[in-house]
Amino acid sequence: MKKTSNAEYADDRLIDLRQLDHLQFDDVHEAYHLDWSSMLLLMRWLHDGEDSTIVIDRRGRLLNVERRYSELISELSQEYHVYRNTMATLYKKTNAQSVGCVSGRHRLVPLTGLRNRSVIFICADNLSPHGFDSSRRGCSVLSFDGYDHQTIRVMINVAIDTIKRNLNAAAKISHALIEHLEMVRKNYEGERCCERHPDFNHLDDLHQLENRVRYEVLENALDSIANKLYGHPMDEEFKRLLKKQLIAPCDGTNH
Predict the structure, then answer these.
(1) pTM for this prediction
(2) pLDDT for 125-159, tens place per residue?
(3) Cβ atoms within 10 A of the Cβ of 25, count?
(4) Is the pLDDT of residue 66 over 90?
(5) CA–CA separation, 188 and 191 (whole Å)
(6) Contact, 58 vs 144, CB < 8 A?
(7) Which of 225, 223, 177, 229 is nearest to 203 (CA)?
(8) Cα–Cα distance for residue pair 247/44, rounded to 1 Å
């Protein structure tokens, strides 16, 4: 086996997000595309009257993205079919107070309340084993696996118990979604293969088919109820709003 020299490894990095006014950014972006494999953390940043987003990527770079965090999460959700109503429903079965964005094994987890002026989301996929701990400085330290064997540590003012609760909730939802999609896959194609494709991109058509069937079943049930209660089915405006609600992307807000 070839021995790897220390020179081939990137230096570890420590980023302190407790004092935002003293941050030194590595780059500024007007446009930015969130990706599960390259992001570690995003944080809402209200600065000089502008609502922008702090992003830490797997290269350890601290980025100022001049867009709202909700817009970035909404685009990610649309790409991976993460619906706001689905997340809200699944999160009701957990003890987490803030709703995250979960797609299969990919978990974008809020560590603070969604109304927080500095709401923080982390990509749990890239946490190191035992990736969080309490600091003697009265804060929490998150450890992420960066590129080139780099460890990226981030200091935040969030209690360890809160971090554990939110990560556990996202893990439960991840498991439920994987089991559901395995069932869909098995019903339509007769095999299990999601272990080989954790991002579920290959299931894009099945996602859309399953969503259409789910809507039609719900619409039929509500038509039956409306007929019994009011003597007529749902009107078209109700159906339009229902469909809009079911396919609205998760955007990391309470709206």
Answers:
(1) 0.77
(2) 999 987 888 876 778 999 999 998 899 999 999 99
(3) 13
(4) yes
(5) 9
(6) yes
(7) 177
(8) 25
Q: CA-CA distance, 168 to 143, in Å (whole number)? A: 17
Q: Are 137 and 126 in contact (CB under 8 A)?
A: no
Average pLDDT across the chain, whole number = 84
Residue 7 has what pLDDT?
Answer: 43
Q: What length is written for the chain?
A: 255
Domain layout of the chain by residue ranges:
13-167, 174-191+199-247
pLDDT of 210: 66
Tokens 């971090």, located at residue? 163
Which of 49-63, 75-89, 222-236, 241-255 is predicted most confidently? 49-63
**Is the model's pLDDT at 69 over the cut of 90?**
yes
| Cβ count within 10 A of residue 228 | 8
What 3 state SS string does 32-73 have? Answer: CCCCCCCEEEEEEEEECCEEEEEEEECCCCEEEECCCHHHHH
The helix (run of H) or strand (run of E) holding residue 190 is none
140 DSSP β-pair partners: 134, 156
pLDDT band at 3 (very low <50, low <70, confident <90, very high): very low
Looking at the chain, list the stretches that DSSP marks H as alpha helix, in order from N- to C-terminal side: 69-80, 84-91, 160-189, 204-230, 236-247
Query: Which pair of structure tokens corresponds to residue 189?
Result: 């194609």
Number of H helices, E strands in the chain: 5, 11
Question: Residue 185: which residues within 8 A CB-CB, separation 6 or more?
Answer: 191, 192, 193, 194, 203, 206
Output the pLDDT for position 253: 85
Half-sphere exposure of 147 (CA within 13 A, CB side): 9
